[in-house]
Structures are given as structure tokens and as C-alpha cells.
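Exercise 7b. C-alpha cells:
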């Protein structure tokens, strides 16, 4: 075999796996999105783009689009800010910091479904510790999971908590990779802690922040399904129904495979557009040292 063909030969197993588990399902989903199944499931009709038209003109789907936007934007923004603040504290050289790092990272080892169950107990209006604390401090007994907007706030809190450890681990590695000489030089020049943070720490962490933003978008768009399903089931009144939960409900509860496939294609398109825009414009402010 020619040496030029060896790399392509070695890529065959990877390409087969990618084709079988990614590209083939994507093509099949695109095909199914152009069809509609009869109410009894015994006939399939070709409808072209009507599934997409029905979704785009649906008031409920438009509401779910806003819910998804708010949920993703708030979860990612607050999640990154809180993770960075925790990382700055955990990066300090104090006794027992390794134990605290392990404790903070532990939520990421919990599955989204378990995270949703834990927060459902914590926010229970009768026996939940969070509800009890609010009652003692503010005299308010909030029904977190059955009223709006507290239900949306609850799943945002659970999502941030579950993904906190993942973000902290990467921020910590980035902070430990910044040479101390940069800070020493800044101190000599008279820069305070705030100036050092915005002039040294934040720019040098921008590649990691860039990576985490992409990963958090994927997590909140897809992996948070378990949290929503356990905590609110999309309620009350569809106020916490996101794109991924709507897809699950249409595909596995109502067995409307054509509509669910169309929703999958819209999700793929949205993720592609968001990723392209992010790489096109946001990467310009990323500083690689």
C-alpha cells in the first residue's frame, strides 16, 4: 500500500462510526421531516415543508423559542460568571483547598435526572430546605415548580449547579497556566487587583471561556432535558418547555415522528448558525498566548 493512502486507511474506522451514528441518522431525520404519519400510524404521507411551516406559524412553538432563548442565555451567562468567581477563590493556596475543589466539582458527576430530583426535593414547598429557608428569612412560602416565573428560575438554578464543576475544572486549569511573572510585573507597574483581573486574567482565559461557552450552549440545549422532565415536565402551562422538551413530547408521547423530525432539523440548524456566528465574530477577541 502506498504511504500516501495509509492515513486514509487508518481513518476508515472513525469515518464508519461517524457515518453510522451521526450522518446516517441526520439524513434519516431530514427524510422523516418531510412526511406526516396518519393518526393511527398505519400510513405515511409526503407533505414537503408543511411540518416546518406549521412549526414556524405555531404560537406555542414561538413561545417555546423565547423560553429556550431565555433559559440558554441566562444559564450560560450566570454559569460562566459564577464558575469563574469560584475558580478564582479555589485557585488560592490555602490549606484544604483540594477538598473544596472536589466538593465543588462533584455535582458534575451527577446525571441531569438525579440533579433534577435533588432540586425537586430542595424546592418542595412542604419539606424542601430552600423553601424552608425562604419562609424563615422572608416569610414567603414559594411554590417553585408550579408557578411562573419561579419554575423557570428553578430549572436555571439546577442547570447551573449541575454544570458548575465542568466549568470550574477548565477555569482552574487556565488560571494555573498563567505565569506569576505577569502579575508581578503588573504589581510593579502599580496595577491593582481589579486592573490585573481585567488586563491579564480575563484576556488570557478567553480561549477557555470561548470553549466553555460552546460546550454550555450544547449542554443547556440538549442535556438539560432530564432536569426539565423531572422538575416541571414543561409546566406550568408550557412555561418551561424548551425546544428539546417539545421534541421529546412530540416524538415519544404524541408519536408525531414527522413533526419531531422537523424540530430536530430546526435545532441542528440553530446550533449550526450559533456556532458559525460565535466562531466568526467572538473568536476575534480571543487571545492565544
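Sequence design result:
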Amino acid at each position: 500500500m502506498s504511504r500516501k493512502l495509509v492515513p486514509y486507511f487508518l481513518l476508515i474506522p472513525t469515518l464508519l462510526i461517524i457515518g453510522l451514528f451521526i450522518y446516517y441518522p441526520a439524513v434519516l431525520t431530514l427524510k422523516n421531516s418531510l412526511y406526516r404519519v396518519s393518526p393511527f400510524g398505519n400510513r405515511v404521507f409526503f407533505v414537503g415543508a408543511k411540518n416546518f411551516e406549521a412549526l414556524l406559524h405555531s404560537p406555542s412553538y414561538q413561545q417555546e423559542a423565547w423560553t429556550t432563548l431565555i433559559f440558554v442565555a441566562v444559564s450560560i451567562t450566570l454559569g460562566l460568571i459564577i464558575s469563574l468567581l469560584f475558580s478564582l477563590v479555589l485557585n488560592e493556596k490555602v490549606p484544604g483547598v483540594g477538598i473544596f475543589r472536589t466538593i465543588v466539582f462533584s455535582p458534575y458527576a451527577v446525571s441531569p435526572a438525579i440533579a433534577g430530583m435533588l432540586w425537586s426535593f430542595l424546592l418542595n414547598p412542604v419539606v424542601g430546605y430552600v423553601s424552608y429557608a425562604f419562609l424563615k428569612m422572608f416569610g414567603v412560602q414559594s411554590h417553585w415548580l408550579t408557578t411562573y416565573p419561579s419554575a423557570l428560575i428553578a430549572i436555571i438554578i439546577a442547570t447551573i449547579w449541575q454544570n458548575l464543576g465542568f466549568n470550574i475544572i477548565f477555569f482552574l486549569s487556565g488560571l494555573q497556566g498563567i505565569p506569576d511573572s505577569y502579575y508581578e510585573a503588573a504589581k510593579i507597574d502599580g496595577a491593582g487587583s481589579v486592573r490585573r483581573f481585567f488586563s491579564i486574567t480575563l484576556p488570557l482565559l478567553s480561549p477557555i471561556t470561548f470553549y466553555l461557552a460552546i460546550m454550555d450552549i450544547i449542554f443547556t440545549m440538549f442535556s438539560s432535558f432530564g432536569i426539565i422532565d423531572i422538575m416541571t415536565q414543561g409546566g406550568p402551562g408550557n412555561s418551561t418547555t424548551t425546544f428539546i422538551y417539545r421534541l421529546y413530547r412530540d416524538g415519544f408521547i404524541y408519536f408525531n415522528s414527522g413533526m419531531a423530525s422537523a424540530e430536530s432539523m430546526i435545532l441542528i440548524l440553530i446550533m449550526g448558525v450559533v456556532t458559525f456566528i460565535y466562531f466568526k465574530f467572538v473568536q476575534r477577541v480571543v487571545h492565544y498566548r
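Instructor comment: The chain has a mean pLDDT of 87. The longest helix spans residues 59-90.
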